[in-house]
Amino acid sequence: MGRVAGPNPDPVVLVHGFLDYYGTPWWATMEELLVEAGWPEERVHSVTISKLPGTTIGSPMSYAAKVQETLESAHDAHGQPVDVIGHSMGGLKARWCVEQGDGEEYVDDLVTLGTPHQGTYAAYWALLTPGGRDMIPGSSFVRTLNEGGLAPSVRYTSVWSSADSLVLPQSNAKIPAEIVDEDTENIYCGAKAHISMVHDAEVLGMYAHRLD
């Protein structure tokens, strides 16, 4: 994919999901794709929650302060609003920060990749963890998030796949119809695996126009 970013693109903040961390190879690939698409390397930031794989099992609520810290730091470093890309539970962390915390003032666009906005039945395998319980369909976390609605000043994009084995049913990765507005977009990316949505150049090309 060639350059798609404008001459002064918003900084991008990457937020990983459940059990993940930034030592996994798909995040390095995503950063490379963003740079190739025109984002200067120094404008790509990540939320460091843990340096150990498999340890990020907490509630999305418990990570919201760390997300906001990174949003504020990136915003202040570049003097402009930031765009957020959250994968899987990372999208829930970002939403909670933006909608239930004070993150909205720092964010322009929020893109989620394979995020269980309406919960996922796959979370039952992680029922013993706070994060797993919060991602079960109908959980108090999911209800609170969606009943609260979207942040008015943030433009939302949700990317979902028909081959996502960790968001079940797959359509639960869409932002619920009852809270979408005219600036919200649910993008179907085809039969992409849950992790491949992070590092697939074709997927980035489907939502890159939503980052500015």
Automatic annotation (TrEMBL):
<dbReference type="GO" id="GO:0016298">
    <property type="term" value="F:lipase activity"/>
</dbReference>
<protein>
    <submittedName>
        <fullName>Alpha/beta fold hydrolase</fullName>
    </submittedName>
</protein>
<dbReference type="InterPro" id="IPR029058">
    <property type="entry name" value="AB_hydrolase_fold"/>
</dbReference>
<keyword id="KW-0378">Hydrolase</keyword>
<dbReference type="GO" id="GO:0016042">
    <property type="term" value="P:lipid catabolic process"/>
</dbReference>
<dbReference type="Pfam" id="PF02089">
    <property type="entry name" value="Palm_thioest"/>
</dbReference>
<dbReference type="InterPro" id="IPR002918">
    <property type="entry name" value="Lipase_EstA/Esterase_EstB"/>
</dbReference>
